[in-house]
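Late entry, evening session. Most of the bench is empty. Finally got around to the prediction I had been postponing all week. Sequence below, unchanged from the version circulated by S.P.
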Amino acid sequence: SLADFDLLSTRERQTILGEFNDTRREVPDGLTLHGLVAAKAARTPGSVAVIHGDTELTYASLDGQANHLAAVLARDFRIAPGDFVGVMMERSAHLIVALLAVMKAGAAYVPIDPRHPWETVRYMVGNAGIRALIVDAASIAGAGHFSGDLVVADLELRGAPVAPAPGEAASGSDLAYAIYTSGSTGQPKGVAIEHRAIVNTILWRNSFYGIGPSDVNLQIPSFAFDSSVVDIFCVLAAGGVLVVPDEAMRLDAERLVALSAERAVTSCIVTPSYYKLLVGEFAGSVPSLRWVTLAGESASPRLVAAHLDQMPAVALYNEYGPTENAVCATACRIDKAGPTISIGRPIWNVEVLILDGAGRLVPPGVPGEMHLGGAGLARGYVNRDDLTAERFVPSPVAGHPGTLYRTGDRACWRPDGSIEFLGRLDSQVKIRGFRIELDEVELALRRQPAVRNAAVICREDAGGAKYLAAFVEAHEPVTRVVLREHLAGQVPYYMIPDVIAVLPRLPLNLNGKIDRAALAVLDDMAPAAAAAAPLSPTESSLVALWADVLKRSPVTLDDNFFAIGGNSLRVMELTSRIRGELSLGVDLLDIYAYPTVRELAGRLASTN
Protein backbone atom coordinates (compact mmCIF):
# COMPACT_ATOMS: atom_id res chain seq x y z
CA SER A 1 0.00 0.00 0.00
CA LEU A 2 0.99 3.66 -0.28
CA ALA A 3 1.45 3.81 3.50
CA ASP A 4 4.22 1.22 3.24
CA PHE A 5 6.20 3.28 0.72
CA ASP A 6 9.34 4.80 2.25
CA LEU A 7 9.74 8.47 1.35
CA LEU A 8 13.46 8.46 2.17
CA SER A 9 16.41 7.27 0.18
CA THR A 10 19.11 5.36 2.05
CA ARG A 11 21.34 8.43 1.86
CA GLU A 12 18.64 10.73 3.31
CA ARG A 13 18.03 8.31 6.17
CA GLN A 14 21.75 8.28 6.97
CA THR A 15 21.84 12.07 6.82
CA ILE A 16 18.94 12.51 9.25
CA LEU A 17 19.87 9.79 11.73
CA GLY A 18 23.63 10.12 11.46
CA GLU A 19 24.54 13.70 10.54
CA PHE A 20 21.60 15.86 11.67
CA ASN A 21 21.41 13.90 14.95
CA ASP A 22 25.13 13.60 15.61
CA THR A 23 24.75 14.92 19.16
CA ARG A 24 26.42 12.34 21.39
CA ARG A 25 28.57 13.86 24.14
CA GLU A 26 29.93 12.38 27.35
CA VAL A 27 28.18 13.70 30.48
CA PRO A 28 29.34 12.27 33.84
CA ASP A 29 26.86 9.96 35.57
CA GLY A 30 25.33 10.80 38.93
CA LEU A 31 25.42 14.59 38.71
CA THR A 32 22.58 16.54 40.31
CA LEU A 33 21.34 20.07 39.80
CA HIS A 34 22.07 21.16 43.38
CA GLY A 35 25.38 19.31 43.25
CA LEU A 36 26.57 21.53 40.40
CA VAL A 37 25.96 24.61 42.55
CA ALA A 38 27.52 23.03 45.65
CA ALA A 39 30.66 22.30 43.65
CA LYS A 40 31.02 25.99 42.79
CA ALA A 41 30.38 26.93 46.43
CA ALA A 42 33.28 24.70 47.44
CA ARG A 43 35.61 26.31 44.89
CA THR A 44 34.61 29.98 45.19
CA PRO A 45 32.77 30.37 48.51
CA GLY A 46 33.29 34.12 48.73
CA SER A 47 32.01 34.99 45.26
CA VAL A 48 28.59 36.62 44.92
CA ALA A 49 25.97 34.14 43.72
CA VAL A 50 22.57 35.87 43.97
CA ILE A 51 21.52 39.52 44.04
CA HIS A 52 17.99 40.66 44.89
CA GLY A 53 17.54 44.33 45.68
CA ASP A 54 20.03 45.15 48.44
CA THR A 55 20.50 41.47 49.33
CA GLU A 56 23.62 39.70 48.12
CA LEU A 57 24.29 36.03 48.85
CA THR A 58 27.74 34.57 48.38
CA TYR A 59 28.07 30.99 47.19
CA ALA A 60 28.96 29.92 50.73
CA SER A 61 25.87 31.63 52.15
CA LEU A 62 23.58 30.33 49.40
CA ASP A 63 24.78 26.76 49.83
CA GLY A 64 24.89 26.95 53.63
CA GLN A 65 21.36 28.35 53.93
CA ALA A 66 20.10 25.68 51.53
CA ASN A 67 21.80 23.01 53.67
CA HIS A 68 20.09 24.39 56.78
CA LEU A 69 16.64 24.49 55.18
CA ALA A 70 17.13 20.99 53.73
CA ALA A 71 17.85 19.71 57.24
CA VAL A 72 14.72 21.46 58.55
CA LEU A 73 12.61 19.88 55.81
CA ALA A 74 13.91 16.40 56.60
CA ARG A 75 13.94 16.68 60.40
CA ASP A 76 10.90 18.82 61.21
CA PHE A 77 8.62 18.20 58.24
CA ARG A 78 9.51 14.57 57.45
CA ILE A 79 10.37 15.27 53.82
CA ALA A 80 11.92 12.16 52.30
CA PRO A 81 13.59 11.32 49.00
CA GLY A 82 11.00 11.02 46.25
CA ASP A 83 8.54 13.50 47.79
CA PHE A 84 7.19 16.56 45.99
CA VAL A 85 7.48 19.87 47.86
CA GLY A 86 5.58 22.95 46.70
CA VAL A 87 7.40 26.28 46.57
CA MET A 88 5.00 29.25 46.50
CA MET A 89 7.08 32.36 47.07
CA GLU A 90 7.61 35.80 45.66
CA ARG A 91 10.80 36.48 43.70
CA SER A 92 13.71 36.74 46.13
CA ALA A 93 17.09 35.32 47.11
CA HIS A 94 15.29 33.06 49.60
CA LEU A 95 13.35 31.52 46.72
CA ILE A 96 16.62 30.30 45.17
CA VAL A 97 17.64 28.92 48.58
CA ALA A 98 14.32 27.06 48.83
CA LEU A 99 14.67 25.41 45.42
CA LEU A 100 18.14 24.14 46.31
CA ALA A 101 17.01 23.00 49.76
CA VAL A 102 14.20 20.84 48.41
CA MET A 103 16.60 19.03 46.08
CA LYS A 104 19.25 18.67 48.80
CA ALA A 105 16.59 16.90 50.90
CA GLY A 106 16.19 14.41 48.06
CA ALA A 107 12.78 15.74 47.04
CA ALA A 108 11.55 17.42 43.85
CA TYR A 109 10.34 21.01 43.89
CA VAL A 110 7.04 22.10 42.36
CA PRO A 111 7.03 25.87 41.63
CA ILE A 112 3.64 27.47 42.25
CA ASP A 113 2.96 31.07 41.23
CA PRO A 114 1.39 32.96 44.18
CA ARG A 115 -0.96 34.58 41.65
CA HIS A 116 -2.50 31.23 40.65
CA PRO A 117 -6.14 30.81 41.73
CA TRP A 118 -6.63 28.36 44.59
CA GLU A 119 -8.49 25.92 42.31
CA THR A 120 -5.32 25.49 40.24
CA VAL A 121 -3.11 25.22 43.34
CA ARG A 122 -5.50 22.73 44.95
CA TYR A 123 -5.32 20.44 41.92
CA MET A 124 -1.51 20.62 41.76
CA VAL A 125 -1.20 19.87 45.47
CA GLY A 126 -3.56 16.90 45.23
CA ASN A 127 -2.12 15.51 42.00
CA ALA A 128 1.47 15.58 43.27
CA GLY A 129 0.61 14.57 46.85
CA ILE A 130 2.30 17.69 48.23
CA ARG A 131 2.44 17.52 52.05
CA ALA A 132 4.64 20.57 52.62
CA LEU A 133 4.47 24.00 50.99
CA ILE A 134 7.32 26.50 51.31
CA VAL A 135 6.00 30.07 51.48
CA ASP A 136 7.23 33.50 52.53
CA ALA A 137 5.63 36.38 54.39
CA ALA A 138 4.31 37.85 51.14
CA SER A 139 2.65 34.66 49.88
CA ILE A 140 1.47 32.94 53.07
CA ALA A 141 -2.01 34.49 52.89
CA GLY A 142 -2.63 32.74 49.56
CA ALA A 143 -1.91 29.36 51.16
CA GLY A 144 -4.66 29.64 53.76
CA HIS A 145 -6.61 26.69 52.33
CA PHE A 146 -3.59 24.35 52.33
CA SER A 147 -4.13 21.53 54.83
CA GLY A 148 -0.53 20.29 54.94
CA ASP A 149 2.58 21.76 56.55
CA LEU A 150 3.52 25.36 55.79
CA VAL A 151 7.25 26.04 55.83
CA VAL A 152 7.80 29.80 56.16
CA ALA A 153 11.19 30.39 54.58
CA ASP A 154 11.63 33.86 56.13
CA LEU A 155 11.32 32.41 59.64
CA GLU A 156 13.37 29.28 59.05
CA LEU A 157 16.24 31.24 57.49
CA ARG A 158 16.24 34.22 59.88
CA GLY A 159 19.55 34.09 61.70
CA ALA A 160 20.05 30.52 60.54
CA PRO A 161 23.56 29.14 60.85
CA VAL A 162 25.42 28.20 57.68
CA ALA A 163 25.03 24.45 57.85
CA PRO A 164 27.30 21.75 56.46
CA ALA A 165 26.14 19.74 53.49
CA PRO A 166 23.71 16.93 54.32
CA GLY A 167 24.37 13.42 53.11
CA GLU A 168 23.61 13.09 49.40
CA ALA A 169 19.94 12.12 49.21
CA ALA A 170 19.49 12.26 45.43
CA SER A 171 21.11 10.72 42.38
CA GLY A 172 20.99 11.51 38.69
CA SER A 173 17.99 9.23 38.19
CA ASP A 174 15.90 10.95 40.88
CA LEU A 175 13.45 13.76 40.17
CA ALA A 176 14.67 17.35 40.43
CA TYR A 177 11.39 19.17 39.82
CA ALA A 178 7.91 18.98 38.31
CA ILE A 179 6.45 21.91 36.41
CA TYR A 180 2.74 22.10 35.64
CA THR A 181 1.54 23.16 32.20
CA SER A 182 -1.91 23.64 30.71
CA GLY A 183 -3.89 20.48 30.00
CA SER A 184 -6.58 19.77 27.39
CA THR A 185 -8.73 17.89 29.96
CA GLY A 186 -9.33 21.06 31.93
CA GLN A 187 -6.65 20.34 34.53
CA PRO A 188 -2.92 21.16 34.39
CA LYS A 189 -0.42 18.34 33.98
CA GLY A 190 2.81 18.01 35.92
CA VAL A 191 5.95 17.25 33.92
CA ALA A 192 8.46 15.33 36.06
CA ILE A 193 12.14 15.92 35.19
CA GLU A 194 15.07 13.89 36.52
CA HIS A 195 18.38 15.43 37.55
CA ARG A 196 20.30 13.74 34.74
CA ALA A 197 17.97 15.21 32.12
CA ILE A 198 18.24 18.82 33.29
CA VAL A 199 21.98 18.45 34.04
CA ASN A 200 22.48 17.49 30.38
CA THR A 201 20.76 20.73 29.34
CA ILE A 202 22.71 22.82 31.86
CA LEU A 203 26.11 21.49 30.81
CA TRP A 204 25.27 21.90 27.12
CA ARG A 205 24.14 25.52 27.62
CA ASN A 206 27.21 26.45 29.61
CA SER A 207 29.42 25.03 26.85
CA PHE A 208 27.35 26.46 23.98
CA TYR A 209 27.24 30.01 25.37
CA GLY A 210 30.58 29.90 27.15
CA ILE A 211 28.96 30.83 30.47
CA GLY A 212 31.54 31.40 33.20
CA PRO A 213 32.29 33.17 36.51
CA SER A 214 32.30 36.61 34.86
CA ASP A 215 28.71 36.30 33.64
CA VAL A 216 25.81 38.13 35.26
CA ASN A 217 22.39 36.78 34.27
CA LEU A 218 19.18 38.80 34.60
CA GLN A 219 16.46 36.40 35.78
CA ILE A 220 13.30 37.38 33.85
CA PRO A 221 11.10 34.26 33.32
CA SER A 222 8.39 33.38 35.82
CA PHE A 223 9.46 30.69 38.28
CA ALA A 224 6.42 28.66 37.19
CA PHE A 225 7.79 28.64 33.62
CA ASP A 226 10.39 26.00 32.70
CA SER A 227 12.87 28.50 31.22
CA SER A 228 13.47 29.65 34.79
CA VAL A 229 15.27 26.38 35.56
CA VAL A 230 18.12 26.96 33.10
CA ASP A 231 17.94 30.70 33.70
CA ILE A 232 18.76 30.16 37.38
CA PHE A 233 21.02 27.15 37.42
CA CYS A 234 23.21 27.65 34.34
CA VAL A 235 24.89 30.74 35.73
CA LEU A 236 25.08 29.31 39.28
CA ALA A 237 26.62 26.07 37.96
CA ALA A 238 29.24 28.24 36.20
CA GLY A 239 30.10 30.36 39.24
CA GLY A 240 28.50 33.54 37.88
CA VAL A 241 25.96 35.95 39.35
CA LEU A 242 22.16 35.65 39.22
CA VAL A 243 20.27 38.96 39.44
CA VAL A 244 16.65 38.49 40.57
CA PRO A 245 14.38 41.53 40.09
CA ASP A 246 11.17 41.67 42.09
CA GLU A 247 7.85 41.16 40.33
CA ALA A 248 7.08 44.86 39.81
CA MET A 249 10.53 45.55 38.39
CA ARG A 250 10.38 42.44 36.18
CA LEU A 251 7.36 43.93 34.44
CA ASP A 252 8.73 47.47 34.11
CA ALA A 253 11.03 47.82 31.10
CA GLU A 254 12.57 51.11 32.21
CA ARG A 255 13.48 49.87 35.70
CA LEU A 256 14.64 46.51 34.35
CA VAL A 257 17.08 48.19 31.98
CA ALA A 258 18.34 50.47 34.76
CA LEU A 259 18.96 47.41 36.94
CA SER A 260 20.76 45.68 34.07
CA ALA A 261 23.07 48.64 33.61
CA GLU A 262 23.70 48.99 37.36
CA ARG A 263 24.57 45.30 37.78
CA ALA A 264 26.50 44.99 34.48
CA VAL A 265 24.22 42.22 33.21
CA THR A 266 25.73 40.07 30.44
CA SER A 267 22.79 37.83 29.48
CA CYS A 268 19.09 37.09 29.75
CA ILE A 269 16.42 34.69 28.51
CA VAL A 270 13.21 36.33 27.40
CA THR A 271 10.11 35.52 25.36
CA PRO A 272 9.83 37.30 21.99
CA SER A 273 6.63 39.06 23.15
CA TYR A 274 8.49 40.49 26.13
CA TYR A 275 11.66 41.29 24.20
CA LYS A 276 9.70 43.38 21.73
CA LEU A 277 9.20 45.86 24.60
CA LEU A 278 12.80 45.63 25.80
CA VAL A 279 14.90 45.72 22.64
CA GLY A 280 14.64 49.47 22.17
CA GLU A 281 15.31 50.10 25.87
CA PHE A 282 18.35 47.80 25.98
CA ALA A 283 19.96 49.37 22.90
CA GLY A 284 22.83 51.58 24.01
CA SER A 285 21.85 51.37 27.70
CA VAL A 286 23.52 48.12 28.81
CA PRO A 287 27.06 48.03 27.36
CA SER A 288 27.89 44.88 29.35
CA LEU A 289 25.24 42.80 27.56
CA ARG A 290 26.81 39.93 25.57
CA TRP A 291 23.81 37.92 24.42
CA VAL A 292 20.03 37.57 24.53
CA THR A 293 18.21 34.25 24.20
CA LEU A 294 14.68 34.11 22.80
CA ALA A 295 12.60 31.18 24.06
CA GLY A 296 9.06 30.13 24.84
CA GLU A 297 7.39 31.08 21.57
CA SER A 298 8.16 31.75 17.91
CA ALA A 299 10.48 34.65 17.12
CA SER A 300 9.33 37.02 14.38
CA PRO A 301 11.62 38.26 11.59
CA ARG A 302 10.62 41.83 12.51
CA LEU A 303 11.89 41.41 16.09
CA VAL A 304 15.11 39.78 14.91
CA ALA A 305 15.68 42.62 12.46
CA ALA A 306 15.12 45.19 15.22
CA HIS A 307 17.72 43.51 17.43
CA LEU A 308 20.31 43.12 14.68
CA ASP A 309 19.82 46.74 13.65
CA GLN A 310 19.91 48.28 17.13
CA MET A 311 22.36 45.93 18.89
CA PRO A 312 24.58 44.29 16.26
CA ALA A 313 27.32 43.60 18.82
CA VAL A 314 24.98 41.63 21.09
CA ALA A 315 24.55 38.00 20.02
CA LEU A 316 20.96 36.80 19.56
CA TYR A 317 19.99 33.15 20.06
CA ASN A 318 16.83 31.13 19.55
CA GLU A 319 15.97 28.11 21.70
CA TYR A 320 13.16 25.59 21.25
CA GLY A 321 12.03 22.90 23.63
CA PRO A 322 8.96 21.66 25.46
CA THR A 323 8.87 21.23 29.23
CA GLU A 324 8.87 17.47 28.53
CA ASN A 325 12.45 17.66 27.23
CA ALA A 326 14.20 19.39 30.13
CA VAL A 327 13.57 22.91 28.78
CA CYS A 328 15.61 22.85 25.56
CA ALA A 329 15.86 20.52 22.54
CA THR A 330 17.27 22.69 19.74
CA ALA A 331 19.08 26.03 19.49
CA CYS A 332 20.99 28.35 17.19
CA ARG A 333 22.50 31.79 16.90
CA ILE A 334 20.52 34.14 14.67
CA ASP A 335 22.74 36.16 12.36
CA LYS A 336 20.16 37.47 9.90
CA ALA A 337 16.43 38.13 9.69
CA GLY A 338 15.09 35.91 6.94
CA PRO A 339 11.42 35.32 6.13
CA THR A 340 11.40 32.50 8.73
CA ILE A 341 13.53 31.99 11.82
CA SER A 342 15.17 28.61 12.38
CA ILE A 343 14.88 26.90 15.77
CA GLY A 344 18.35 25.45 15.24
CA ARG A 345 19.81 21.99 15.61
CA PRO A 346 19.53 19.35 18.35
CA ILE A 347 21.54 19.95 21.52
CA TRP A 348 23.82 17.42 23.24
CA ASN A 349 22.42 13.88 23.51
CA VAL A 350 19.00 14.92 22.18
CA GLU A 351 17.50 13.30 19.11
CA VAL A 352 14.95 14.98 16.83
CA LEU A 353 12.90 12.85 14.45
CA ILE A 354 10.30 14.42 12.16
CA LEU A 355 7.70 11.81 11.23
CA ASP A 356 4.64 11.66 9.00
CA GLY A 357 1.25 10.36 10.12
CA ALA A 358 2.34 6.78 9.48
CA GLY A 359 5.39 7.15 11.75
CA ARG A 360 7.94 7.35 8.92
CA LEU A 361 10.89 9.70 8.65
CA VAL A 362 10.27 12.54 6.21
CA PRO A 363 12.92 14.04 3.90
CA PRO A 364 14.26 17.58 4.36
CA GLY A 365 11.67 20.15 3.32
CA VAL A 366 8.68 17.88 4.04
CA PRO A 367 6.53 18.80 7.08
CA GLY A 368 5.86 16.30 9.84
CA GLU A 369 5.45 16.05 13.61
CA MET A 370 8.53 16.59 15.74
CA HIS A 371 9.40 13.68 18.03
CA LEU A 372 12.13 14.02 20.65
CA GLY A 373 14.31 11.31 22.16
CA GLY A 374 17.49 10.99 24.16
CA ALA A 375 18.83 12.32 27.43
CA GLY A 376 16.41 15.20 27.97
CA LEU A 377 13.14 13.28 28.17
CA ALA A 378 10.91 13.67 31.20
CA ARG A 379 10.07 10.65 33.31
CA GLY A 380 6.45 11.38 32.38
CA TYR A 381 3.44 13.18 33.82
CA VAL A 382 2.88 13.17 37.58
CA ASN A 383 0.39 10.42 38.42
CA ARG A 384 -0.97 10.41 34.87
CA ASP A 385 0.13 7.07 33.45
CA ASP A 386 -2.54 7.29 30.75
CA LEU A 387 -1.25 10.59 29.40
CA THR A 388 2.36 9.47 29.74
CA ALA A 389 1.64 6.40 27.60
CA GLU A 390 -0.12 8.59 25.02
CA ARG A 391 2.68 11.13 24.61
CA PHE A 392 5.84 9.08 25.34
CA VAL A 393 5.76 6.30 22.77
CA PRO A 394 8.04 3.57 21.40
CA SER A 395 9.91 4.70 18.30
CA PRO A 396 8.03 3.55 15.17
CA VAL A 397 11.16 3.95 13.03
CA ALA A 398 12.40 0.56 11.84
CA GLY A 399 15.81 -0.35 13.23
CA HIS A 400 15.82 2.69 15.51
CA PRO A 401 14.43 1.71 18.94
CA GLY A 402 13.87 3.98 21.92
CA THR A 403 11.25 6.20 23.54
CA LEU A 404 10.06 9.33 21.76
CA TYR A 405 8.02 12.27 23.00
CA ARG A 406 5.33 13.37 20.56
CA THR A 407 5.52 17.16 20.70
CA GLY A 408 2.44 17.99 18.61
CA ASP A 409 4.61 20.56 16.79
CA ARG A 410 4.85 20.66 12.99
CA ALA A 411 8.31 21.20 11.57
CA CYS A 412 10.62 20.33 8.71
CA TRP A 413 14.33 19.82 8.24
CA ARG A 414 16.27 22.39 6.28
CA PRO A 415 19.04 21.07 4.00
CA ASP A 416 21.72 22.26 6.45
CA GLY A 417 20.32 20.20 9.33
CA SER A 418 18.55 23.04 11.09
CA ILE A 419 14.81 22.91 11.77
CA GLU A 420 11.97 25.19 10.79
CA PHE A 421 8.99 25.37 13.17
CA LEU A 422 5.63 25.34 11.35
CA GLY A 423 3.04 25.52 14.14
CA ARG A 424 0.84 23.17 16.14
CA LEU A 425 -1.17 20.10 15.19
CA ASP A 426 -3.73 20.66 17.98
CA SER A 427 -5.40 23.45 19.95
CA GLN A 428 -2.39 24.25 22.11
CA VAL A 429 -0.91 27.73 21.76
CA LYS A 430 1.99 29.59 23.32
CA ILE A 431 1.40 33.14 24.46
CA ARG A 432 4.10 35.16 26.24
CA GLY A 433 5.96 31.88 26.72
CA PHE A 434 3.17 30.00 28.49
CA ARG A 435 1.66 26.85 27.02
CA ILE A 436 -2.12 27.16 26.91
CA GLU A 437 -4.61 24.46 25.93
CA LEU A 438 -7.60 26.30 24.49
CA ASP A 439 -9.80 23.39 25.61
CA GLU A 440 -8.90 24.08 29.25
CA VAL A 441 -10.03 27.71 28.99
CA GLU A 442 -13.25 26.69 27.24
CA LEU A 443 -14.04 24.11 29.93
CA ALA A 444 -13.47 26.73 32.63
CA LEU A 445 -15.86 29.14 30.89
CA ARG A 446 -18.52 26.45 30.57
CA ARG A 447 -18.43 25.94 34.33
CA GLN A 448 -19.95 29.42 34.76
CA PRO A 449 -23.70 28.83 35.39
CA ALA A 450 -24.89 31.36 32.79
CA VAL A 451 -22.77 29.93 29.97
CA ARG A 452 -24.30 27.50 27.51
CA ASN A 453 -21.24 27.13 25.28
CA ALA A 454 -17.86 28.77 24.73
CA ALA A 455 -15.08 28.89 22.17
CA VAL A 456 -11.58 30.33 22.57
CA ILE A 457 -9.26 31.15 19.70
CA CYS A 458 -5.80 32.67 19.34
CA ARG A 459 -5.55 35.92 17.40
CA GLU A 460 -2.75 38.29 16.43
CA ASP A 461 -2.90 42.05 16.82
CA ALA A 462 -1.54 44.52 14.29
CA GLY A 463 1.92 44.25 15.84
CA GLY A 464 2.00 40.46 15.52
CA ALA A 465 1.46 39.77 19.23
CA LYS A 466 -0.73 36.77 20.01
CA TYR A 467 -3.70 37.00 22.37
CA LEU A 468 -6.71 34.92 23.39
CA ALA A 469 -10.24 35.84 22.35
CA ALA A 470 -13.21 34.10 23.97
CA PHE A 471 -16.73 33.86 22.57
CA VAL A 472 -19.55 32.91 24.89
CA GLU A 473 -23.12 31.82 24.19
CA ALA A 474 -25.20 32.36 27.33
CA HIS A 475 -28.67 31.16 28.31
CA GLU A 476 -29.10 34.14 30.65
CA PRO A 477 -27.58 37.63 30.75
CA VAL A 478 -23.94 37.71 31.83
CA THR A 479 -21.30 40.43 31.56
CA ARG A 480 -17.67 40.25 30.51
CA VAL A 481 -16.66 41.41 33.99
CA VAL A 482 -18.49 38.49 35.60
CA LEU A 483 -16.88 36.06 33.16
CA ARG A 484 -13.39 37.43 33.83
CA GLU A 485 -13.95 37.21 37.59
CA HIS A 486 -15.12 33.61 37.17
CA LEU A 487 -12.02 32.70 35.15
CA ALA A 488 -9.74 34.41 37.67
CA GLY A 489 -10.88 31.81 40.20
CA GLN A 490 -10.47 28.89 37.81
CA VAL A 491 -7.29 29.28 35.74
CA PRO A 492 -3.89 31.02 36.01
CA TYR A 493 -3.82 34.69 35.07
CA TYR A 494 -2.03 34.09 31.76
CA MET A 495 -4.91 31.90 30.54
CA ILE A 496 -7.59 34.59 30.93
CA PRO A 497 -8.56 35.82 27.42
CA ASP A 498 -7.63 39.39 26.59
CA VAL A 499 -11.04 39.90 25.01
CA ILE A 500 -14.37 38.25 25.84
CA ALA A 501 -17.46 38.62 23.67
CA VAL A 502 -20.95 37.44 24.57
CA LEU A 503 -22.83 36.42 21.41
CA PRO A 504 -26.50 35.52 20.90
CA ARG A 505 -25.34 32.24 19.36
CA LEU A 506 -21.99 30.73 18.40
CA PRO A 507 -21.69 30.18 14.63
CA LEU A 508 -21.77 26.54 13.49
CA ASN A 509 -20.37 24.95 10.34
CA LEU A 510 -22.13 22.42 8.10
CA ASN A 511 -21.12 19.60 10.45
CA GLY A 512 -22.79 21.30 13.39
CA LYS A 513 -19.48 22.15 15.08
CA ILE A 514 -18.39 25.59 16.23
CA ASP A 515 -17.16 27.51 13.20
CA ARG A 516 -13.84 28.81 14.47
CA ALA A 517 -12.95 30.24 11.07
CA ALA A 518 -16.03 32.47 11.30
CA LEU A 519 -15.04 33.59 14.80
CA ALA A 520 -11.54 34.44 13.60
CA VAL A 521 -12.82 37.08 11.18
CA LEU A 522 -15.35 38.79 13.46
CA ASP A 523 -14.53 42.49 13.45
CA ASP A 524 -16.27 43.72 16.57
CA MET A 525 -15.48 41.76 19.70
CA ALA A 526 -18.11 43.48 21.82
CA PRO A 527 -20.40 46.52 21.54
CA ALA A 528 -18.72 49.67 22.75
CA ALA A 529 -20.40 51.45 25.63
CA ALA A 530 -21.47 55.02 25.15
CA ALA A 531 -19.58 57.47 27.32
CA ALA A 532 -18.93 61.14 27.73
CA ALA A 533 -16.07 62.65 25.76
CA PRO A 534 -12.76 63.11 27.59
CA LEU A 535 -12.75 66.25 29.70
CA SER A 536 -9.05 67.07 29.92
CA PRO A 537 -5.95 66.93 27.70
CA THR A 538 -4.54 64.13 29.88
CA GLU A 539 -7.73 62.08 29.50
CA SER A 540 -7.70 62.63 25.73
CA SER A 541 -4.08 61.52 25.50
CA LEU A 542 -4.71 58.46 27.67
CA VAL A 543 -7.74 57.42 25.61
CA ALA A 544 -5.61 57.58 22.44
CA LEU A 545 -2.78 55.61 24.07
CA TRP A 546 -5.13 52.94 25.39
CA ALA A 547 -6.74 52.52 21.99
CA ASP A 548 -3.34 52.10 20.34
CA VAL A 549 -1.88 49.75 22.97
CA LEU A 550 -5.03 47.61 23.14
CA LYS A 551 -5.67 47.75 19.38
CA ARG A 552 -9.32 48.62 19.89
CA SER A 553 -11.53 51.65 19.48
CA PRO A 554 -13.40 53.39 20.94
CA VAL A 555 -12.11 53.41 24.51
CA THR A 556 -14.24 55.16 27.12
CA LEU A 557 -13.26 56.98 30.29
CA ASP A 558 -14.62 54.17 32.46
CA ASP A 559 -13.43 51.08 30.57
CA ASN A 560 -11.35 48.83 32.81
CA PHE A 561 -7.96 48.34 31.15
CA PHE A 562 -7.88 44.64 32.00
CA ALA A 563 -11.50 43.98 31.07
CA ILE A 564 -10.91 45.18 27.50
CA GLY A 565 -7.71 43.30 26.76
CA GLY A 566 -4.98 44.59 29.07
CA ASN A 567 -2.29 42.24 30.34
CA SER A 568 1.11 42.53 32.00
CA LEU A 569 3.00 43.15 28.75
CA ARG A 570 0.53 45.81 27.67
CA VAL A 571 0.89 47.44 31.08
CA MET A 572 4.64 47.64 30.40
CA GLU A 573 4.03 49.21 27.00
CA LEU A 574 1.47 51.67 28.38
CA THR A 575 3.66 52.89 31.26
CA SER A 576 6.64 53.28 28.94
CA ARG A 577 4.62 55.35 26.48
CA ILE A 578 3.04 57.53 29.17
CA ARG A 579 6.52 58.38 30.40
CA GLY A 580 7.95 58.91 26.92
CA GLU A 581 5.08 60.56 25.03
CA LEU A 582 3.29 62.43 27.82
CA SER A 583 6.38 63.13 29.97
CA LEU A 584 4.46 62.06 33.06
CA GLY A 585 5.80 59.98 35.92
CA VAL A 586 3.84 56.74 36.28
CA ASP A 587 4.51 53.50 38.10
CA LEU A 588 3.53 50.13 36.72
CA LEU A 589 1.42 49.48 39.82
CA ASP A 590 -0.58 52.66 39.11
CA ILE A 591 -2.24 50.90 36.16
CA TYR A 592 -3.36 48.07 38.43
CA ALA A 593 -4.59 50.42 41.16
CA TYR A 594 -6.25 52.93 38.79
CA PRO A 595 -7.40 50.79 35.82
CA THR A 596 -9.72 53.29 34.07
CA VAL A 597 -8.75 56.40 32.11
CA ARG A 598 -10.74 58.58 34.51
CA GLU A 599 -9.03 57.12 37.60
CA LEU A 600 -5.55 57.11 36.11
CA ALA A 601 -5.84 60.70 34.87
CA GLY A 602 -6.78 61.75 38.41
CA ARG A 603 -3.83 59.84 39.82
CA LEU A 604 -1.40 61.42 37.34
CA ALA A 605 -2.76 64.88 38.09
CA SER A 606 -2.11 64.40 41.81
CA THR A 607 1.41 62.95 41.44
CA ASN A 608 2.84 65.10 38.64
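Two things to note before I forget:
The chain has three domains: 33-410, 435-520, 537-607.
The first helix runs from residue 10 to 20.
Will write this up properly tomorrow.
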